[in-house]
Amino acid sequence: MSAILIVEQVLNGLQSGVMLFLMAAGLTLIFGVMGLINLAHGSLYMVGAFAAAAVAGATGSFVLALGAALVAAALAGGIVELVVIRRLYGRDHLDQVLATFALILIFSEGTRWLFGSFPLYLDIPDWLAGPVTLPGGIQYPLYRLALIVVGLVIAAGLGLLISRTRIGIQIRAGENDREMIAALGVDISRLYTLVFALGAGLAGLAGALVGAIQSVQVGMGEPVLISAFVVIVIGGIGSIKGALVGALMVGLTDTLGGIFLPELFKLFTDPAKATATGSAFASMAIYVLMAAVLVWRPTGLFGARA
Amino acid sequence: MSMKTLMTAAALAALAQSAGAEVKVGMITTLSGGGASLGIDTRDGFMLALDKSGRDDIEVIIEDDQRKPDVAVQITDKMIQSEKVDVLTGIVWSNLAMAVVPAATAQGLFYLSTNAAPAQLAGKGCNQNYFAVSYQNDNLHEAAGAYTKEAGYAKPFILAPNYPAGQDSLNGFKRFYDGELAGEIYTELGQTDYAAEIAQIRASGADSVFFFLPGGMGISFLKQYADSGVGLPVVGPAFSFDQAILQAVGEAAVGVSNTSTWSKDLDNPANAAFVAAFQEKYDRLPSIYAAQGYDTANLLVSALEKADVSDADAFRAALAEADFDSVRGKFSFAANHHPIQDIYVREVIKEGDIYTNKITGIAMEDRANAYVDECSM
């Protein structure tokens, strides 16, 4: 195992972490501010990817495609909040899970109805394609480096939005005491729609960014959603900082676990068996991490309340 | 409506139904969710062959299994008990086949497999009423192993998802490739990011890559592999290079060698007629799943010409003769009711705006399967 391989894997872990952050940020804000469990967040990720694939196919521009993903997912999120989610705030979590699960089915079949069952094509633009050579002779895909940069810039922007702007103050206040902020004259329902659309837009953007290197197909959001839930539980519900730290931890654990655990098992058993058991343990690694964090800090790393 | 008229109406309806169709076929396949394109092609190929046969006494009941074993089992029970089907077919995924086939054949029904053919049903668990029209699951991987060896690669890196068909895949590959391996990894089922695996391939000193990653997993892997600049030659089974997903992979797949029992440019009259008719009816190119569905329906029709489905022994013997024009050319059944057929090497090319395959050679001739001797029926 060379140093180059390890550096490359750390970069891979960071890249998957920042993309996970874009998903988890919206999820944690929505849960933190509105107390809503939104299972349909993965569908908004899918909406973003499909919108990007459609626009990229029609115009050939990747930047326009990303814009379209952001707008389409935010719009879909806004509409869903106004039509469905709004009725769920007062209900208990089981009703919310049921309703948002129904939304997953509606989004999935609706997308199939619009685009068909065959996976769509969305590719990296030429100006971001191919590998670059980093100091130390490491070859790394330029697009993945770009994803890391974009993800960190968005994380910084979101941090500023929450800590420095008026809307950020309202969001934080809404997390702490929604009756009080409504009593102070803040239009709480408008705030909710805004937060929901913001979270949806970020998920859509992540879907488009990741869709270019993966496959754009119905149901692509659900596996990511599960990891995103793990992230917000680790980071602490409602905390953007927690989502970032949690996402990076999950990304790195997942990537590095997949490499090192099979190597570790090779010390004890024959290679074929070691790869099988090693990969089985690696797929559990993020859940073990979550359990460990919860034992140490039951509200998550940066969580304020249980 | 009184009870009496209701009963009469029901009896009449039952009569009308039995007069309309003599053979009932239950098709259980995946028509929704991520794997839907495979089931849709299976269904379309199957129905195309029935249309062309001109027989109107075959009724097909089609149900969506949602790629879930429990749903498939429920549908099967319904089809057997209330629809009284004679023949079942259509399942795409091996785990669903394992949930359905043994129970159905134990009740005396015929099952004709359009795709899934796990090792368990080919060896000790074989059944006289179970016919795999597609292949035995290991076949394409065995052919990839044989091709890798023949092409002179000395250090392939091999990977597959960590589930039964993935383990069968790597075992099948190693059955016919006995040289050194640069590495062997099992990935997570449903994994979409392969950056870590690609880094390992780069560091391993491999001279080629073999992978089995069906569906969206293969699309993700190929796009990321192409972008990584690793650039080693890639070999795989047909699943990741099939017409159903090739357009989504795009440029990244061009030049890849893949093993298949069928290709749209296979030179025989049955295939030419099939490809033309499929394109005309559905306005897209057929996939291997469509070809297998088409062959399955033609096998069924050929057996019905010779025997009545109610005479199980005669019908079974008629099926075993495989007296139909397969789109794959040569086709016969081995003793365990799995095909003996040629397995080809194809290369992905771009034809106009469409990505598709062309045949470049034969990987294995008259290949049956590794489990014939374990089966006693």
TrEMBL record, chain A:
Source organism superkingdom: Bacteria
The protein's name: Amino acid/amide ABC transporter membrane protein 1, HAAT family
Places the protein is found: Cell membrane
Transmembrane regions listed in the UniProt entry: 18-37, 68-85, 97-122, 142-162, 191-213, 225-253, 274-296
GO molecular function: transmembrane transporter activity
Cellular component GO terms held in the UniProt record: plasma membrane
Membrane topology: Multi-pass membrane protein
An individual GO BP term: amino acid transport
CDD domains: TM_PBP1_LivH_like
Keyword set includes RNA-binding: no
The keyword Cell membrane appears for this protein: yes
Keyword terms of this UniProt record: Amino-acid transport, Cell membrane, Membrane, Transmembrane, Transmembrane helix, Transport
Family the UniProt entry places it in: Belongs to the binding-protein-dependent transport system permease family. LivHM subfamily.
From TrEMBL, chain B:
Pfam families for this protein: Peripla_BP_6
Coiled coil: none
Organism the protein comes from: Tropicimonas isoalkanivorans
Entry annotated with the keyword tRNA processing: no
GO annotation terms (biological process): amino acid transport
UniProt keyword annotations, A-Z: Amino-acid transport, Signal, Transport
Protein name: Amino acid/amide ABC transporter substrate-binding protein, HAAT family
Residues in Leucine-binding protein domain copies: 22-352
PANTHER family in alphabetical order: LEUCINE-SPECIFIC-BINDING PROTEIN, PERIPLASMIC BINDING PROTEIN OF ABC TRANSPORTER FOR NATURAL AMINO ACIDS
Keyword RNA-binding: no
InterPro entries assigned: BCAA_transport (IPR051010), Leu-bd (IPR028081), Peripla_BP_I (IPR028082)
SUPFAM superfamilies, per the entry: Periplasmic binding protein-like I
Highest taxon in the source lineage: Bacteria
Signal peptide: 1-21
Family statement: Belongs to the leucine-binding protein family.
